[in-house]
Write a structure and sequence with these properties.
By secondary structure, this protein is mainly α. It has one domain. 43% of the residues lie in helices and 0% in strands. The protein has three helices and no strands. It is globular and about 25 Å long. The chain starts with 10 loop residues before the first helix and ends in a 9-residue tail after the last helix.
């Protein structure tokens, strides 16, 4: 693991955290459309991320 800002990391960084390319791309699309992560719980709201991650 590494310290990161979920609003600025790349697809490659998301994949290093264990997400698939498809999951990573969905998160970046959310951010490109103006979405923001303000707190850790916001990541759990993404349908691409499960509790197991």
């Amino acid at each position: 693991m590494f310290v990161f800002d979920p609003n600025t990391i790349s697809v490659d960084d998301w994949q290093r955290l264990g997400l698939s390319f498809k999951q990573s791309a969905a998160i970046l699309k959310y951010l490109e459309k103006g979405g923001k992560f303000k707190k850790t719980e916001d990541l759990k709201k993404m349908y691409t991320i499960t509790e197991k991650m």
